[in-house]
Design goal:
This protein is α/β, with parallel strands linked by helices. The chain has helices spanning about 25-35, 40-50, 55-65, 70-80, 100-120, 135-150, 170-180, 195, 210-225, 230, 240-245, 245-265, 275-280, 295-305, 320-330, 335-350; strands spanning about 15-20, 85-90, 125, 130, 155, 185, 235-240, 285, 310. It has a single domain, classed as Alpha-Beta Barrel (TIM Barrel). The chain is globular. The two termini are about 35 Å apart. The structure holds manganese (II) ion (MN).
Length: about 350
């Protein structure tokens, strides 16, 4: 018999899901227009060319669920025993769009819509701000509006912006705003940029199956190795999908990064104040979105510290109530489960 999942602290902890997606119709329309005009990058063509148009049961379900910020979503949360969802505009946000007026408008209206939903379900929904990194100064202002007027708890940036990465100087206003206003920066995947995607599409590996994690972990490593956390020691970075694999590789990164610095081969690689491991344990949080694996979650807890690992479901892309049952039954202590499902997210997002 399958145990019924209940909200309200069934096992002595609330369940907070920290990487849950929604979309707006105009966002999807704008992306599909780019795809139809042949102007979108290969990752966007593959991701939204499929999710936006395929008539399959899975994609129809996902489209319907992404657009809903009401009863359907709350019912799904009830079914999984999820008390709260931290919501963000789905990947790639507006980051594929070339028309800046259009991109800023879609992001701002998505934020307004999310704010309304959070007001309708104040105990169930928590918002993250959508920005338009193509315009860093506007994004910094929108981050302020998100934090001060809309009551949002973080920002989601869908990895690269047209092949550019947040360690580049042009994006400094965004990092500064996050650090100054204590806004957790959730870097969520999207398809690798054309300069990186190589043969991944032909191999069917450019998406959530693999390419997402490769590109997003690369993005995060760029922040770590170029000294972003020495510049902004209070900056909080959140990564999904088992922290995009970084904890598994960290000792090798650290050893070879140090060798690279000593060799003076790379003008951008300078000695850092701390080891890469230190930043992983100080500035980075990991969630298990899309990775309901007790072994991976325990590895994250061991490498990053048990205060830095949070639960996520990745609804509606991976809506599997049995995953919650599996994680409820993990062989970790009760105190660790309380942190994982509830209190780490409460502290990180200030909720
Ligand atoms: Mn996701």
């Amino acid at each position: 018999m399958t145990t019924e999942l209940k909200t309200g602290g069934q096992y002595g902890y609330l369940r907070i899901a920290t990487e849950e997606a929604f979309a707006t119709a105009e966002q999807i329309d704008a992306i599909l227009r780019l795809v139809a005009e042949g102007r979108a990058d290969k990752g966007t063509v593959s991701l939204w060319g499929f999710y936006g148009t395929s008539p399959s049961e899975r994609t129809t379900f996902i489209r319907e669920r992404l657009l809903d910020l009401g009863e359907l979503r709350v019912q799904a949360m009830d079914e999984c025993g999820i008390d709260k969802a931290v919501l963000a505009l789905t990947s790639p946000g507006v980051q594929s769009l070339f028309d800046l007026d259009e991109a800023r408008g879609i992001a701002a209206r998505a934020n307004d819509r999310l704010k309304d939903a959070c007001e309708r379900y104040p105990t169930r929904f928590v918002g993250m701000t959508a920005v338009c990194p193509q315009d860093p100064e506007w994004s910094a202002q929108e981050l302020r509006r998100g934090k001060e007027e809309l009551g949002f708890a973080g920002v989601q940036i869908n990895s690269h912006t047209q092949g550019h990465y947040l360690d580049e100087e042009q994006f400094d206003p965004i990092l500064r705003a996050c650090a100054d206003m204590d806004i957790p920066l959730y870097i969520h995947p999207q398809g690798p940029p054309d300069g990186m995607i190589g043969g991944m599409v032909e191999a069917g590996l450019e998406g959530a199956v693999f390419g997402f994690a490769m590109e997003t972990s690369y993005h995060a490593l760029r922040l770590l190795t170029t000294g972003v956390f020495d510049r902004y020691p209070s900056l909080k970075l959140v990564l999904g999908h088992g922290c995009e694999g970084l904890p598994f590789w960290i000792d090798r990164f650290n050893y070879m990064f140090n060798a690279g610095v000593r060799s003076q081969r790379y003008p951008r690689l300078k000695p850092l104040r701390h080891s890469l491991h230190h930043y992983l344990r100080t500035n980075v949080w990991g969630t298990n979105s899309g990775l309901p694996s007790p072994a991976s979650i325990k590895l994250l807890m061991e490498v990053m510290g048990e205060d830095r690992v949070c639960y996520a479901m990745d609804y509606p892309y991976q809506f599997v109530p049995d995953e919650v049952r599996l994680l409820d039954a993990m062989d970790i202590s009760h105190e660790q489960k309380v942190k994982f499902f509830q209190t780490n997210a409460e502290k990180l997002f200030g909720i």
